[in-house]
UniProtKB/TrEMBL annotation:
HAMAP family: UPF0340. Belongs to the UPF0340 family. It comes from the Bacteria. Pfam families: DUF436 (PF04260). Coiled coil: none annotated. It comes from Halalkalibacillus sediminis. SUPFAM superfamilies: TTHA0583/YokD-like. InterPro entries: Antibiotic_NAT-like, DUF436. Transmembrane segments: none annotated. This is UPF0340 protein CEY16_07365.
């Protein structure tokens, strides 16, 4: 299937513009992306990865990072146990366990593989606790979101042919009936 990369870019820009306006976005927080470029292209997840789509999305996500100060994290597919690509400095500062694998299109996915090649000092970590998540193509990012994840309803529900879901997290409410939650 031929994808209109310019239309995809415009849609991604709209999605990220909505994210920028969300009150929870804060510099230094982790923004997790799970992405099936196959699903975007209208194919079955893991069957038709696209380096072109991954490159375009990465460019838009890096611009978003520059504008917001968030930390980007890219989830791999199940063949690498849904490990996550991040900058080495982020992994070390947060005490995340670095694992030994190099994502590629058939083990990790095109998006994670592109991120691994494109970040300055990329590493793979076993697990993260992200503050925000964007799941493009139903890649199942929930295992890497902090408790408590809250669905975010943005205007765009799909990117290309892929279903997209969004979430942010909030601290757990503890204490019961005597607790106060607002300052």
């Amino acid at each position: 299937m031929h994808m209109d990369l310019e239309q995809l870019r415009q849609d991604m820009q709209k999605i990220l513009a909505e994210w920028k306006n969300h009150s929870s976005i804060q510099a230094g927080n982790v923004f997790l992306i799970g992405c099936s470029t196959s699903e975007i292209a209208g194919e079955h997840i893991g069957s038709a990865g696209s380096g072109e789509i991954a490159e375009m999305l990465f460019e838009e996500l890096k611009a978003f990072q520059h504008e917001t100060g968030v930390v980007l994290a890219f989830q791999c597919c199940e063949h690498l146990n849904r490990s996550v690509v991040v900058e080495r400095s982020v992994a070390l500062a947060r005490g995340w366990t670095i694992v030994s694998a190099i994502p590629h299109a058939k083990a990790g996915g095109s998006m994670a593989a592109h991120a691994f090649r494109s970040l300055d000092h990329a590493v793979l970590v076993e697990f993260v606790e992200a503050d925000y998540g964007m799941d493009i193509g139903d890649t199942l990012i929930g295992m890497h979101l902090k408790h408590v994840a809250v669905p975010l309803r943005l205007g765009i529900k799909s990117l290309g042919q892929a279903h997209v879901t969004y979430a942010y997290t909030r601290p757990k409410l503890i204490g019961g009936e005597r607790a106060l939650y607002e300052k």
